[in-house]
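Subject: sequence -> structure tokens, single chain

Hey, anyone have a minute? Need the predicted structure for the following. Not urgent.
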Amino acid sequence: APKGAMIKVGAVYLLAGIVFAAISIFSGLDRSNPKRWGAAAFWGLFAASFLFGDLVGDFANGVLIIAMALIAGLVGLGVGNAATSTENERAESADRLGYSPQSSSFLPVRCWEPCF
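Reply:
Had a minute. Here:
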């Protein structure tokens, strides 16, 4: 491979940090979760660790991890009750979009069935 063609670990940390930041935002917006602020803080600290961990140093990263452990242990993250579809609605949607078990998109799965 040509020099510089590989994905650097910094890019992976950036992508993960962005994902964790999005989880933090969505956790804070989840009004069905009574512990949403604890969850948002936990995921926000996790995102900060990935996004800024190399800038703040080892001690600050340790403080972030301890804060995350305290939030998870003392406050908790909770679970929301997100609105979702019924089993029948999902089956109808899969059929409408062509993702039924009889469709060709499931061929690799059907080929592996005899192995299990």
